[in-house]
Write a structure and sequence with these properties.
The protein is an all-alpha fold and about 400 residues long. About 70% of the residues lie in helices and about 0% in strands. A two-stranded antiparallel sheet has the order 1-2.
Length: about 400
């Protein structure tokens, strides 16, 4: 056996992973620092002048490069060499503790080469943009640039948390997304089980196409069509009137909208979400079902005793991934249906729509970046906590 898991103790593998992460982050810090210094030296300043100014504290501003007055910028610029050194050391130690077999790289270099585009994609579009986090701590000015804007610390966060609506929008975001995850997962599993039990046939093919199609419709189109159903003179109110009931002003009553959003979200996404579970069911060992049939198990018993237990790991994995974005409201859906209808805000206003309105009215990009960082941090914490709980209950279902 040549796998790392059989050669290296668990604690060494974990330490190697941690050192690898530290090394990559340190080298990214170093890269940012060198970019700052290069930006300054690209003008009339030389590298030596920049280093001398950095060591002299405020002298950098006297030389005409004001971004060095930003403590965030100074941290990266001053420590760029240190970050480079300990980043490389951390990567070397990770290789030593992990006992990476570099012969495997030479043997399977073509396979490793295939991962390069994906790694470059992650680096360029996922990690490099993290430098934009600095906007959350500055009074961002597009003219002064990302790292030249005035540093204001936590003022952008105070602007959000001192407001009267942050508790309401945070609760709405969490509540609506929790409803979407629970109902969406349940309906996707139900559809997947139903479609696989019906086996092949023209009806199944047509049904799958019909259920997946709504996923590709724009929320704007869906919102326009919904007016024909829940508008003042829509199908729902006409039906209620025909049965002798009074009409309902859906666009003036916020209490109806969590249920409306759940129904629409299921209609639009459950069919597409079922594809993952259908693939998981298709990969299950058919001999288990054959043995159950021989033992006299009914179709419902096979579903309850075999299919659903075997789907558990997939359901947990998809739920964990969904929890990571639980503090990100579906802006496209909510804004397409609600827009700026203030009467519906008590149950429909989420963090994303609140920030969008704030950006339009105050034009403070730093505040929006601060709220985005808040969303990401809370989502990250929830994933860690949920994964820890899952790991205690069923270690095989945990992500890490």
């Amino acid at each position: 056996m040549n796998s790392l898991q059989t050669k290296v103790p668990v604690w060494r593998r974990k330490l190697a992973i941690l050192l690898g992460i530290v090394g990559v982050v340190a080298l990214l810090f170093a890269l940012v620092g060198f970019l700052f210094v290069s930006q300054a030296s690209g003008g009339e300043l030389t590298y030596a002048a920049v280093d001398e100014a950095l060591q002299a504290g405020g002298a950098a501003e006297a030389l005409g490069y004001t971004p060095f007055g930003n403590p965030f910028v100074r941290f990266f610029a001053v420590n760029r060499v240190f970050h480079t050194i300990y980043g490389l050391v951390a990567l070397i130690l990770a290789a030593i503790f992990g006992k990476i077999d570099f012969r495997d790289f030479r043997k399977n270099w073509m396979l490793y080469l295939l991962t390069v585009p994906a790694l470059l994609y992650l680096l360029v579009f996922k990690y490099v943009p993290m430098a934009g986090i600095v906007i959350a701590f500055t009074k961002f000015n597009p003219i002064q640039g990302l790292f030249g804007s005035e540093w204001i610390g936590l003022d952008n966060f105070k602007f959000f948390f001192r407001g009267s609506q942050w508790k309401e929008v945070t609760f709405n975001t969490f509540y609506l997304n929790a409803l979407f995850i629970i109902t969406g997962t349940a309906m996707s599993v139900l559809i997947a089980v139903a479609m696989t039990e019906l086996r092949k046939g023209i009806y199944v093919r047509i049904s799958q196409s019909v259920m997946i199609l709504p996923h590709f419709l724009s929320w704007v189109v869906v919102a326009l069509f919904s007016i024909a159903f829940i508008g003042g003179n829509g199908v729902v109110n006409r039906s209620l009137g025909a049965m002798g009931f009074g009409t309902v002003a859906f666009y003036n009553e916020p209490s109806y909208w969590p249920g409306i959003f759940v129904i629409i979200r299921i209609w639009k996404g459950a069919g597409f979400g079922a594809v993952v579970y259908m693939a998981a069911i298709t990969g299950m060992d058919t001999e288990i079902y054959e043995a159950a049939i021989i033992d006299g198990a009914s179709q419902l018993q096979r579903i309850w005793r075999i299919t659903l237990p075997l789907l558990k790991d997939t359901v947990i994995l998809m739920t964990l991934l969904a929890i990571g974005g639980i503090f990100y409201g579906d802006f496209a859906m909510i804004f397409a249906f609600v827009g700026d209808t203030a009467a519906l805000f008590p149950t429909t206003d989420v963090i994303d729509t609140y920030v969008f309105r704030a950006l339009r009215t105050t034009n403070r990009m730093g505040m929006t970046a601060a709220v985005g960082l808040y969303q990401s941090f809370i989502g990250f914490i929830l994933v860690i906590i949920t994964n820890a709980v899952v790991k205690r209950v069923n270690p095989e279902s945990a992500i890490f």
